[in-house]
Design a protein that fits this description.
single chain, alpha+beta, Pdz3 Domain, 2 domains, two-stranded antiparallel sheet, 10 helices, 20% strand, elongated
Length: 361
């Protein structure tokens, strides 16, 4: 019974994150469309069929829909075929592109805000809790015991999301004399100098310090607002770079071996990651994951593939270049075919998510 409850909680949390990120994306389209004078008929949370009408501001209906897999805005003439001067299709190309890019910008902004808030007030240090000590090792020579926590080395602490930890630092300084900051189980802190094993021992798999350790969260890292903004911007850029790299690996994998498991996860795989983070990591890691997924949504949506925003931008550019010679029916067919291909891709990658999940069990 607890397993079903745990799975249900994970699914509900994943859907809440998905809806929140997509609604934020659509809010970007909505705000810029309204500011640009485009008529917005509906702002929907979830996808039809409609569950409830939340209200109206005289022009736009706000609705709640039964399928909790995102959200949408319905613009006048968004696929052409409208003579209304306030329709999307009647606006200049630069306005249409701005409206389409606004969703991507909103997801990037959300990722930046999340990463900045974490950097400013929520990020813990990555400490190393000693689980075992190898006899005759440098750690044994200074009396380290299981339960001791290394909170710093050479006066340095290690922010959790920087990808470093005390154990990584000691490996990078093999053969050097360093000073460990150690917190004992009774709460007492101590500065302990130690000479690490050399590179030859590390290469032989012995480790620089001679411990096994588990990374745990420590005290909150203190940053000024200005410093946190810089960290937030850097981590947003890093997240986008990580996703671009994953997309490149996907293309290479599909081109070289289409039958192999892709190096990316679909909705099922992402839901499994959300469940793991929810149950095994501190809450701040879940918030960081939301920021990463928001950046992911931004990068994916800018791809020039209908019906993604990048694909719609490409169609808008082609329409302008051809002086609107692309028919409305052809444009709609392009979006439909693109949607079916995208849906097929999601089914394909979800199959491998299931296979990987079954192998892991």
């Amino acid at each position: 019974m607890s397993g079903f409850l745990n799975a249900g909680t994970t699914i509900a949390l994943f859907l809440a994150i998905l809806v929140g990120l997509v609604v934020a994306h659509e809010l970007g389209h909505f705000i810029v469309a309204r500011l640009s004078g485009v008529r917005v008929h509906e702002f929907g949370i979830g996808f039809p069929p409609r569950a409830a009408r939340l209200g109206s501001d005289g022009e736009t209906e706000y609705t709640l829909n039964w399928l909790p897999i995102g959200g949408f805005v319905r613009l006048e003439g968004e696929e052409g075929g409208s003579d209304d001067p306030r329709s999307f299709s009647q606006k200049p190309l630069r306005v249409r592109i701005t409206i389409l890019v606004a969703g991507v910008a909103m997801n990037l902004l959300l990722a930046f805000v999340i990463f900045t808030v974490i950097a400013a007030a929520l990020e813990p240090t990555a400490d190393a809790r000693v689980e075992s000590v190898v006899p005759g090792s440098p750690a044994a020579s200074i009396g380290l015991q299981p339960g001791d926590v290394i909170t710093g080395v050479d006066g340095r602490t290690f922010p959790y999301f920087d990808g470093e930890a005390p154990t990584a630092y000691t490996l990078a300084h093999a053969g050097d004399r360093v000073t460990l900051t150690v917190r004992h189980p009774d709460g007492a802190a101590q500065e302990i100098p130690v000479t690490l094993r050399g590179q030859a021992s590390v290469a032989a798999g012995k480790g620089a310090l001679g411990i096994t350790a588990r990374i745990v969260t420590g005290t909150i890292v203190r940053r000024s607002l200005l410093a946190a903004v810089g960290v937030g911007a850097d981590r947003t850029a890093q997240a986008c770079g990580l996703i671009v790299g994953a997309l490149g690996q996907l293309v290479t994998s599909v081109a070289s071996n289409p039958g192999a498991a892709p190096p990316v996860s679909g909705p099922i795989g992402i839901a499994e990651v959300v469940g793991t983070v929810r149950t095994e990591a501190p809450p701040v890691v879940l918030l960081w994951l939301v920021g990463l997924l928001s950046a992911n949504l931004a990068v994916v949506n800018v791809l020039p593939f209908p019906p993604l925003d990048g694909g719609r931008i490409a169609v808008a550019v082609l329409q302008t270049a051809s002086r609107n010679r692309i028919s409305v029916s052809l444009e709609r067919a392009t979006y439909f075919v693109g949607f079916m291909l995208l849906f097929g891709f999601l089914i394909w990658v979800s199959y491998f998510d299931i296979v990987r999940g079954g192998a892991g069990s």
